[in-house]
Amino acid sequence: MYKSLIRPILFKYDPEKVHHFTFSALKKMFKIPGISGIIKQRWKLKDPRLEREVFGLTFKNPVGLAAGFDKDAKLYKELSSLGFGFIEVGTVTPKAQPGNEKKRLFRLKEDSAIINRMGFNNQGVEQMVERLKKNTNVLIGGNIGKNKVTPNESAADDYIYSFDALFDYVDYFVVNVSSPNTPNLRELQDKEPLKRLLNILQNKNELKAKPKPILLKIAPDLTEEQLLDIIEIVKETHIAGVIATNTTISREGLKSADKNEMGGLSGKPLTKRSTEVIRFLSEKSGKAFPIIGVGGIHSAEDALEKLEAGASLVQLYTGFIYEGPALIKQINQAILNSSKN
């Protein structure tokens, strides 16, 4: 129904307007008595064999929603009802910021992809905290970044601010230094600045009575040498793991009219490269740390490939938009089927 009826209608309109419309519609729909139960019954797949213990947390199933969809933690409860095992909110910054000028979100339908240059638009970490205070049973990841106006030499202050604010309300943290849409942000992926930032956060984390897992989200555009640096940095800083991968700046093989728009590319064109990065990190590190695989998952087979390559969990974003909520259940069912073989 989604792909044959709903998606064709939604795809006729501006993608950012559709995103806000969808959020509003889902909020209203879930307020109708009985709807939440019906949706859970239709989409959620409950089976103890789907549970995963990763970096000290218990995930009801290994399929999560990637950061960028629910930037301000406005819809995490409703989205969880669609069958996700965990929801990652953000990227959030200490202060609210509007992001880049519109138009900044582009569908590449011929490529089953999206280009975005949103620029960490969000309402600020304090607003997010107020919404997360109402959470009761959704496993939440908090994806944190820096404000656009904050210079790189002061970036750690922004990450620490959001880390402190969110600490009691998220289950794990993700340090986002790999978005291509904040000027100079990717420079923080260089070995020394990255090691310094992660050490600062991890030192602060270890002072807590119960430290939270900290993960690093990396770009798919890193070289093998840079990926080897990432492995070394993860081991040296003792962070919990890596999310591979963020959006790419590559435009190789695209067909759509908007293919040359500036921003990060996500969707099917990223499938192969994301899996390559996961496999490289897993093999070269000797499976030393967990990896969350994200990038170009548009089918159950795509997800299984990432899990086989070394991912412990997977996340959806663009595939969820193109394929709809049925994809979550299809992946979980495929995982169950593969466990029987």
TrEMBL record:
The active site is at 179 (nucleophile). It catalyses: (S)-dihydroorotate + a quinone = orotate + a quinol. FMN binds at residues 67-71, 91, 143, 176, 217, 245, 267, 296, 317-318. Its cofactor is FMN. GO terms for biological process: 'de novo' pyrimidine nucleobase biosynthetic process; 'de novo' UMP biosynthetic process. GO terms for molecular function: dihydroorotate dehydrogenase (quinone) activity. One of its GO terms (cellular component) is cytoplasm. It comes from the Bacteria. Residues 50-335 form the Dihydroorotate dehydrogenase catalytic domain. Keywords: Cell membrane, Flavoprotein, FMN, Membrane, Oxidoreductase, Pyrimidine biosynthesis. InterPro entries: Aldolase_TIM, DHO_dehydrogenase, Dihydroorotate_DH_1_2, Dihydroorotate_DH_2, Dihydroorotate_DH_cat, Dihydroorotate_DH_CS. Its main location: membrane. Its EC number is 1.3.5.2. Binds 1 FMN per subunit. Gene3D superfamilies: Aldolase class I (3.20.20.70). Pathway: Pyrimidine metabolism; UMP biosynthesis via de novo pathway; orotate from (S)-dihydroorotate (quinone route): step 1/1. It is found in: Cell membrane; Membrane. Monomer. Belongs to the dihydroorotate dehydrogenase family. Type 2 subfamily. Catalyzes the conversion of dihydroorotate to orotate with quinone as electron acceptor. This is Dihydroorotate dehydrogenase (quinone). It comes from Christiangramia salexigens.
